[in-house]
Amino acid sequence: MILHLVNDEKIINRTIDLFEVSFPGDNLFVVFCKRADYKYVRRSANVLSAQEFLVRQNDFCISSILIHLLNTHKIHFLSKFALKKVPIYWIIWGADLYNRLLQPKGFDLIYSQSKYQQRRKVMRMLYSPVAYVQNKFRAIETIRFIKEKVDYLVTDTTENDYDIFLKYYPEMKDKKWKDFFYYPIDEILGEELMGSSSQGHNILIGNSASLTNNHEYAMDILYRLDVGERRVIVPLSYSGKKRYKETIIQAGNLYWGDRFQPLLDFMTLQDYNALLVGVGVAIYGNWRQEAIGNIVIVLYLGAKVFISYRNPVLEWARNHGLIVFELEKMMQSELDTPLSNEEKQHNREILLNLYNKKRLSELISRLFLT
Questions:
Q1: pLDDT digits (tens, 9 = 90+) for 213-242
Q2: β 202-205/176-180 pair status
Q3: Is there a single domain that holds both residue 110 and residue 190?
Q4: Is residue 129 domain-shared with residue 264, that is, in the same domain?
Q5: Of 197, 266, 258, 249, which Cα lies nearest the Cα of 227?
Q6: Are 28 and 60 in contact (CB under 8 A)?
Q7: What are the residues facing 154 on neighbouring strands?
C-alpha cells in the first residue's frame, strides 16, 4: 500500500482520484490538519488523520511513502514508526524547498522594500536573530532527514527545482529524480473550457495572499504603465495574513481605484477558471517557484505572462519553448499587445502535450519503478 502524507489542500481530492485510477484500493492518505473537520479533503475509507493512522499503523502494509510537501510535522510523524527500508519520495511543492532549505542559504524570496515589510521593520529587527537561528535549525533537521530517509526527489512541473536543490546542496547528488505534476489541464478545465481562449483584457497579479507573491513588487512595476480601463485582479482569498491583505488592498485602491478588484472570497474551480478566460495579462512577482498551476492554465488559455527574472519558473518556461516575458522589462507596448493567435496556439500545444491526464497517469505508474 502507498502511504501519502498530505495537507488539507484543494488539490488533494484530485490527487486521490488520479492515484486511485493507477493503483485502485492501494492508496492510504494521511492528512495533517489542526482541524478535525477538513476544509478541503473529503472523508473516505482511505483518508485518515495522522492520529488515526498512528493508532492503526499495524493494520497496514506500507510499500512506499509519498510526502506531498515536506514539513516538520511529517518528519516527526515518520520518526514514530519503523520504516523497514520503505522507499520514501518527497514531492516538492515550493515552500518546502525554497523557504525551508534555500532561504537559509541566501536565496532571496521577499521584496524587502514593500510598504508591508517596511512597516514590519522594527518587529523584524527584534525577531530576525531568533528567526535566523530557528530557520537554520529547521533546515539542518530537514536536510538530515532527506539525507537519511528520502530516496527520491520528485519535482512538481518545474523539473529545474531538482538542479537548484543540488546547486545549494551538492552533497545530495546521490538522490534520484522523478517527474510529476498536479495540474493536468484537461482535468482542471474540463471539456467546457478546454477549447476556450482568453477573450478579455483584464490584468491578473499573483495567485494567493502569500508573502512570496511579492504583490507590491509586481504592482509597483505595473503602476509605471497605463492600464487604461482594464481591471487589475488580485486573488487574496487563499493563504496569507489579514494585515498583509489589507496592505495590498490599500495599495491597489491607491493605484487603480475602482479598477482594482481584490478577490477575497473563495471561488469554485469552475468559477475561477471562467474568470481566467477574461485575463489578457498575468503578472507574477514571485521570486521562487509558486503558482505553477495558475501559470500553466493562464498560458494555456492564451494570456500574456510576465515572470520575474529572479524566479526559476521563467527559466523553466523558456527551456520548454514557451512564450513568456520578463516582468522587470515590461513596457507599455508589451502590456498593450496581446499574444497573436499563432503564439497562443504555440503555448497551448506545448502545455497540453506536457500536462495532460494521460501523461500524468503514466508518470504515476512509472513513479515507483527504480
A1: 999 999 999 999 999 999 999 999 988 889
A2: unpaired
A3: no
A4: no
A5: 258
A6: yes
A7: 91, 178
